[in-house]
């Protein structure tokens, strides 16, 4: 079961991991980021956009709105710098959501409507956990594609990102 403290920790990890990943991606040319690497969302750029789509869908639902229209493979930003700025803003939005969430909210059931128009009711703590797990899953794909592009991908280990200083 998720707790507010766990959500805040995951939001912080998400934000820092994305900063690290985007920094590594910035070392590639636009052509290299958009090259077809035979991934589910084809390219590094496509996968980074997909993570953004997923986050925006979930955050809209969590904030009481409806999910934005468009496919899960939508390219929201063609320009990498614009995507990077939007990513940072979206991570700040997730940080703020996690900072305000309460245990009673996490323990409650949450109704949402899928992109296919189907209504679901799930425990909110599972949905929030899913959002963070989804991000981690696709960051792993980008991590692999960075290796495929010839880069040394950054460590995305949560305990090294949240606690980067070795013990004395």
Key phrases:
about 170 residues, 7 helices, globular, mainly alpha
What's the helix and strand layout?
Layout lengths: L3 H22 L4 H5 L9 H19 L17 H21 L2 H5 L1 E5 L5 E5 H25 L9 H5 L6
Antiparallel strand pairs: 1-2
Helix pairs in contact: 1-4, 1-6, 3-4, 3-6
Outline of the structure:
By secondary structure, the protein is mainly α. 61% of the residues lie in helices and 6% in strands. It has a two-stranded antiparallel ribbon.
Structure report:
- The structure is a single chain.
- The chain contains seven helices and two strands; from the N terminus they run H-H-H-H-H-E-E-H-H.
- The chain has helices at residues 4-25, 30-34, 44-62, 80-100, 103-107, 124-148, 158-162; strands at 109-113, 119-123.
- The protein has a two-stranded antiparallel sheet.
- Helix 1 packs antiparallel against helix 4 (80-100) and helix 3 packs antiparallel against helix 6.
- The radius of gyration is 16 Å and the shape is globular.
Instruction: Give the low-pLDDT segments.
Output: none
Mean pLDDT over the full residue set: 93
Amount of beta strand: 5-15%
- Percentage of residues assigned to helices: 55-70%
Number of DSSP strands? 2
Computed Rg = 16 Å
Main sheet: strand order: 1-2
């Amino acid at each position: 079961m998720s707790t507010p403290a766990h959500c805040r920790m995951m939001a912080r990890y998400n934000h820092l991991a994305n900063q690290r990943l985007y920094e590594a991606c910035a070392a590639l040319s636009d052509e290299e980021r958009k090259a077809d690497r035979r991934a589910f969302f084809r390219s590094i750029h496509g996968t980074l956009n997909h993570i953004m789509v997923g986050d925006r869908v979930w955050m809209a639902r969590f904030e009481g709105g409806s999910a934005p229209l468009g496919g899960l493979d939508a390219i929201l930003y063609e320009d990498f710098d614009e995507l990077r700025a939007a990513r940072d803003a979206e991570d700040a939005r997730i940080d703020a959501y996690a900072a305000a969430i309460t245990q009673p909210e996490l323990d409650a059931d949450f109704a949402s409507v899928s992109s296919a128009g189907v209504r679901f009711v799930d425990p909110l703590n599972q949905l929030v956990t899913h959002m963070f797990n989804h991000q981690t899953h696709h960051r792993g794909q980008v991590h692999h594609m960075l290796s495929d592009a010839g880069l040394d991908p950054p460590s995305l280990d949560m305990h090294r990102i949240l606690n980067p200083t070795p013990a004395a």
